Amino acid sequence: MTTHHSGTHARADTSAATAQSMSRRRTIASFGNYRDAERAVDHLSDNKFPVDRTAIIGVDVRMVEQVVGRMNWGRALLNGAMSGAIPGLLFGWIFGLFDLINPLVAAFTLALYGLVFGALIGAVIGAIFYAMQRGRRDFSSVTMMVPSRYDLVVDEEVADEAQRLLAGMTPIGGAA
C-alpha cells in the first residue's frame, strides 16, 4: 500500500527528520578545502555507502569581500550596459517568436533591438546609481563566504562503516 502526503506535510516530515538526524551525527573527517571533502563523499558513494546520510559542513565561516577594481564613470556605464543587455536580448528574442509569419527573422531583429535598448537603459541606470554613491564607494567587489575547514558528518548508526571506508581511500597524491 502506498501512502501519499500533501506537500506541506511532506516538507514538515522531511525537515523534522533532518533536524532529528542532525542531532545524531558524528564528524568522521575534516578537510582544508571543499574538493577533498567532496572526494571523500564520492569515495563513499563508489563503495555503495548510503551517502544520503552524510553532510559536508563548512565550519568557522567568515565573509570575504574581494576588491576587483576601481569604480569610475566608464566602469559604471559598462557594468550597467552589460547587466541591461542580456535581459533586453532575451525579451526581444521571446517577443520576436510571437511573429507568426516569419518568427526567425522577427526573433533575431527584436533580439538585436532588445540588446541595444537594454544596454542603453542599463548604462543609464548604472550611471544614476554611481552618481547616487557620491564617491563613497569607488570600488567594485565580490563578496563570498569562506569556511576555515569542511567537516564530513555521518549519521551515528553508520559512522563506523564510513570511517572504515575512508581509511581505505587512496591519498590525494595517488600512492596507496
Please give a structural write-up.
The chain is 53% helix and 21% strand. The protein has helices at 7-23, 34-46, 73-96, 103-133, 159-167; strands at residues 25-31, 54-59, 62-70, 139-146, 149-155. It has a 3-stranded antiparallel sheet with strand order 1-5-2. Strands 3-4 form a two-stranded antiparallel ribbon. α3 (73-96) runs antiparallel to α4. The chain is elongated. The chain starts with 6 loop residues before the first helix and ends in a 9-residue tail after the last helix.
Unreliable spans are: 1-16
Distance between the termini: 48 Å
**Average residue pLDDT:** 82
As a percent range, the share of helical residues equals 40-55%
Rough outline = elongated
List keywords for this structure.
176 residues; alpha+beta; two-stranded antiparallel ribbon; single chain; elongated; disordered N terminus; 5 strands; 5 helices
In short:
Helix content is 53%, strand content 21%. The protein has helices at 7-23, 34-46, 73-96, 103-133, 159-167; strands spanning 25-31, 54-59, 62-70, 139-146, 149-155.
Secondary-structure map with pairings?
Blueprint: H1 7-23, E1 25-31, H2 34-46, E2 54-59, E3 62-70, H3 73-96, H4 103-133, E4 139-146, E5 149-155, H5 159-167
Antiparallel strand pairs: 1-5, 2-5, 3-4
Helix pairs in contact: 3-4
